[in-house]
Amino acid sequence: MSLEPRIVKESLSRIQPVQAKAARYFYGRLFAENPRMRALFPPGMDVHHDRLFQAIGEIVGSQDSPETLAAHLGRLGRAHRRFGVQREHYAAFGTALVATLRAFSDEWSTEIETAWTELCRSAADTMSTAAERDAERAPPWWVAEVVGHDRRAHDLAVLTLRPGCPLPFVAGQHVTVQTSRWPRVWRPYSIANAPRPDGTLRLHVRAVPAGWVSGALVRHTRPGDTVLLGPAAGGMTLDPGSGRDLLLVAGGTGLAPARALAEQAARSGAARAVRLLVGARTGAGLYDLPGLRALESDCPRLRVTPVVSGEPGYPGLRGALPDVLDRFPDLAGHDVHVAGPAPMVRETVTALQRLGVPLDQIRHDLLEAERRAVPVLSA
Predict the structure, then answer these.
(1) In the prediction, which pLDDT does 370 show?
(2) Cα–Cα distance measured from residue 339 to residue 342, given in angstroms and rounded to the nearest whole number
(3) Distance of CA 31 to the CA centre of its chain
(4) Closest CA to 151 of 287, 255, 286, 278
(5) Measured between alpha carbons, how far is residue 128 from residues 80, 184, 205 in Å?
(6) What is the pLDDT of residue 379?
(7) Residues paired with residue 109 on neighbouring β-strands, in sequence order
(8) d(CA 58, CA 50)
(9) Which helix (H) or strand (E) holds 264?
(10) Counting Cβ atoms within 10 Å, is residue 279 exposed (0-12), middle (13-18) or buried (19+)?
(11) Does the CA dihedral 355-359-363-367 come out positive or negative?
């Protein structure tokens, strides 16, 4: 490790006890010195206060691997395009950050300030360059019309969206969404279908407590409304070089990426078998089962297996998803994708490894959540 990464890591760790105060100071200083930048942010700043040093820590922690750092900063630069962030905004961010670290550090020196200034300059240059290159081939966002809004439960809806111009994506990826009800607030949702000739895409959205975007999409969105979509991203996609059979394990709205992968794999013409395990607490919670059965009837190599964990009288397979995996033979010969609530994903990955599935044959959306670029300037 070079001297500079060690310096910034140590100085960042020393302000950890006062990060909350430092974050409030940072944004106050940033907006006082750059009033127009306030328009880049949503009205509520609580999420940003929590997120600021997480995002900085990810950048600092990636310094040991130049390739990892460059890839991470590139994702951040491209992600910030949808907020309207320009090259000069990064410079203002760096100035405010160094001032904040100086104000809250119990140890500070010219050497520390130089290291942080250089890191901010280098990061800003990498992010700006990535954004400018991305602007040559794609817009920062797509305007999409809501052409279908199917309320499947009081807190869940399936939305069908038609972008005004083609939005390229691959099954297993996600897009970020902004609604007119909450300007400048973006949230990621997995796409629930493989690419279609008509360019439409589907999202499975569950309204969560205090979820600004999810609540708006489920309860206050109607056909004819428009939303903004960020570019597709994510690597929970099919391995194009693998001919192994495919197992998809999905809980809750984790069904969305699993359904897209099942659709793509089953219709690809490859000879691989595809099994989709879809879990819910009750039979009523299997909100997309009729559509899955229709997809299954169209795709001879696809088998859909519902699994219910909390309804003793359910006539099908019962149990938690991680606990029923031993019912299926030769899982070690499969590629496996897992999506859903974090505890289920972790337990499923552990069970798969116990059953002999190599870790490099398992992809899951917890990894995707970690890979999604955490916006530094806006959200």
Answers:
(1) 42
(2) 8
(3) 28
(4) 287
(5) 9, 20, 32
(6) 47
(7) none
(8) 14
(9) helix 255-266
(10) buried
(11) positive
User: Cβ(173)–Cβ(122) under 8 Å?
Assistant: no
Buried b vs exposed e over 129-143: b needs ≥16 C-beta within 10 Å? ebbeebeeeeebbbe
Cα–Cα distance measured from residue 79 to residue 77, given in angstroms and rounded to the nearest whole number:
5
User: Per the structure block, which two tokens stand in for 322?
Assistant: 């991680």
Amino acid letter, residue 374: V
Q: Cβ–Cβ contacts within 10 Å for residue 233, how many? A: 18
The whole-number pLDDT of residue 378 equals 52
CA angle in degrees (0–180, nearest 5) for 339-76-14: 95
Q: Kindly report the pTM of this predicted structure.
A: 0.84
- Give the chain's radius of gyration (CA, Å): 23
Using one digit for the tens of pLDDT, what is the confidence trace for 259-309? 999 999 887 877 789 999 999 999 999 999 999 999 999 988 999 999 999
Contact status, residue 375 vs residue 50, Cβ threshold 8 Å = no
Q: What is the largest CA-CA distance in the chain?
A: 70
Instruction: Report in angstroms the alpha-carbon separations of 300 from 259, 303, 369.
Output: 15, 8, 32
Query: pLDDT (tens digit, 9 = 90+) per residue, 331-379?
Result: 999 999 999 999 999 999 999 999 999 999 999 987 444 444 445 555 4
Tokens linked to 315 = 């006539």
Provide, rounded to the nearest whole percent, the portion of the chain with pLDDT above 90. 75
Q: Quickly tell me which residue has 């140590």 as its tokens.
A: 10
Handedness of CA 289, 337, 78, 61 (dihedral sign): positive
pLDDT in tens, 142-158: 999 999 999 999 999 99
- Alpha carbon distance 316, 307 (integer Å): 7
Please identify which residue in the block is written with the tokens 């994702």. Answer: 75
d(C-alpha 72, C-alpha 257), whole Å: 23
Q: Which residue has the higher pLDDT, 6 or 226?
A: 226
Residue 145 amino acid letter: E
315 Cβ partners below 8 Å, 6+ apart? Answer: none
**In this predicted structure, what is the pLDDT of residue 290?**
96
